[in-house]
Amino acid sequence: MSRILIIEDEQDLAGLVEYNLRAAGFETETANTGAGGLAKARAQPPDLVLLDLMLPDIAGGEVLRMLKQDPELRKTAVIIVSAKGQESDRVQGLELGADDYVVKPFSVRELLLRVKAVLRRSDAEEGPAAVLSAGDISLDTSRHQVRVKGEEVVLTALEFRLLRTLLERSDRVQTREVLLSDVWGIQAEIHTRTVDTHIKRLREKLGPAGDIIETVRGVGYKLSPQQ
Q1: CB 100 within 8 A of CB 113
Q2: For the chain, which ranges sit under pLDDT 70?
Q3: Does the pTM exceed 0.85?
Q4: Which secondary-structure segment (H or E) carries 90?
Q5: What is the CATH number of domain 3-125?
Q6: Which CATH fold would you assign to the domain 131-223?
């Protein structure tokens, strides 16, 4: 049974979400402040966090950063649930390491579908351990760790999935649409230019080793280890 932590200061909404999650077979816990949510997550790490951005004490974005900086919680899936619905807000949330972004108001049925999709994706990523490498880049799937020339490079969960996908499909061109579907998930309703932004950030973090990520003009990207 997957355990879900709901960090939401609107108590009526938190209660509604908790009721429906429990009816769907999940174990739940709630917190109405960022500090309270962090304390509960550290006391008993959840499988997934539903995180509001506008909390009364700590901004939700800061809560997300703290979750991802904690070695015991960095692999925990996070879905942001927020009234901030601009594309820039969704992109920023994903860049911080969220696995999905749900805009208020939302249907409970949609939220449940997204929760299940993120948990399935997390389970798939917990498959057989493997070390993928190309050029100076090494990615350890079991440790969720990336190294360049032996030095660790810290990536967000989304950047990690993007690099892993390119490594697994080395020398095969991936269109922006395919990457949005396979890396972001079809539930992430964002424009394809977001892929370009994340590729740019990934290359910057990888340094000179990032040059093996090749742009295929008018199509998408591929990883070319021979470069």
Answers
A1: no
A2: 123-129, 184-192, 226-227
A3: no
A4: helix 87-95
A5: 3.40.50.2300
A6: Arc Repressor Mutant, subunit A (1.10.10)
